[in-house]
Amino acid sequence: MGYTVEIQTSTAGTWMTHSNCLSVLSTRTCLVPMADLISGSFNLPFDTLVEVRVSATNSQGTSTVSSVNTSGARTRRAPSAMAVPVKVSGD
Questions:
Q1: pLDDT for 91
Q2: According to the model, what pLDDT value does residue 13 have?
Q3: H or E segment to which residue 2 belongs
């Protein structure tokens, strides 16, 4: 018994479960680091809505998946390092 939390990857129609979401039933949470969403298997581009769907499994079987969220968290990236300032003559 439990829940399956799936996150849409950058490939349309491809859904994956993050390892942090395997014990949702006992923890009631599923926290996925942004670094994991913007790289690796998910590889979501900047400012992409993190789309999630959920299904439940019990002694009767597995439910149909929920509707995908249409609002919520969007991917972000850490800012790049600033270039070293250079003094321009006359300033």
A1: 59
A2: 93
A3: strand 2-8
For residue 90, tell me if it sits in a domain. Answer: no
Structure tokens at 10: 């950058």
Q: Indicate the number of domains in the chain.
A: 1
Q: Residue ranges of the alpha helices (H) in the chain?
A: 24-27, 34-37
> Using CA atoms, how far apart are residues 17 and 54, in angstroms rounded to an integer?
10
How far apart CA 10 and CA 23 sit, in angstroms, is 24
**Structure pTM?**
0.80
22 within a domain of the structure (yes/no)? yes
Residues 6 or more apart in contact with residue 20 via CB below 8 angstroms? 30, 31, 32, 33
Please check whether residue 79 lies inside any domain of the structure.
no
Tell me, what's the pLDDT at 22?
A: 86
Domain extent for 38: 2-62
Q: Please tell me the predicted confidence (pLDDT) of residue 17.
A: 94
83 within domain boundaries: no
Intervals of the chain under pLDDT 70: 91
